[in-house]
Amino acid sequence: MEFGSFEEFWAALGRLYDANVKNAEEIRELRVSIHELRASTDELRGSVVDLRDSTANLANAVDKLHQVVDVHERRLDRHEITIDAILEDLRRHREGRPPQ
Q1: pLDDT tens digits, the chain, 100 residues: what are they?
Q2: Model pTM?
Q3: What single string gives the DSSP state of each residue in the chain?
Q4: Which residues contact 98 (CB under 8 A, 6 or more apart)?
Q5: d(Cα 88, Cα 80) in Å, to the nearest integer?
Q6: 47 contacts: CB under 8 Å, gap ≥ 6
């Protein structure tokens, strides 16, 4: 690129300087944005870990409750069998038949 005069050269040099200053400022802003994104990502990662731990704790609690429900269901089944046997004996007694 040839310049016709020193003023043209000086003006071009000024534009180049202005562009470099603008680029440097944009780079600083991008670095700040990157830092903020990293901090946000770290915070999000911590939240995901907390959510994973909470989910594991809830799953464990559900398993324990399921075991309690199973125990109670077996107990109720035994009570139902006993009640059915007692009712059958009462019915036989009323009919005058001997209990089995």
Answers
A1: 677 899 999 999 999 999 999 999 999 999 999 999 999 999 999 999 999 999 999 999 999 999 999 999 999 988 998 998 899 888 888 888 776 6
A2: 0.54
A3: ---SSHHHHHHHHHHHHHHHHHHHHHHHHHHHHHHHHHHHHHHHHHHHHHHHHHHHHHHHHHHHHHHHHHHHHHHHHHHHHHHHHHHHHHHHHHHTPPP-
A4: 92
A5: 12
A6: none
Tokens of 80: 């139902």
CA distance 22 to 33: 16
Q: How far does CA 59 lie from the centroid of its chain?
A: 13
5 to 1, 10, 11, 14: CA distances (angstroms): 12, 9, 10, 14
Structure-token match 């670095």, residue found: 31
What is the Cα gyration radius of the chain? 41
